[in-house]
User: What shape does this take?
Amino acid sequence: MSLDEAARQLKMAGHDAQVAFDCIGLGDLERAQEHAVTLRAAADAAEVALSRALTDLTPEQAQSEGEKAIRALEDA
Assistant: This one.
């Protein structure tokens, strides 16, 4: 996995967290739970990608790759 994937997964986790939060406010607990499960899966995937990047990339490479990953998400 790459930093692109880590950033994408974290963005998805953030979205699922917001939807789960909104569902709680609406009393839709089943849907809130579904989104909580998917946010956990996305956060776990991001953690795996970041752990891999820590072992594979130098700090300079991480900075460059991280900047590219964020730009790609902003452009999407």
The chain has a mean pLDDT of 94. The radius of gyration is 15 Å. DSSP finds three helices and no strands in the chain. Residues 19 and 35 are 7 Å apart (CA to CA).
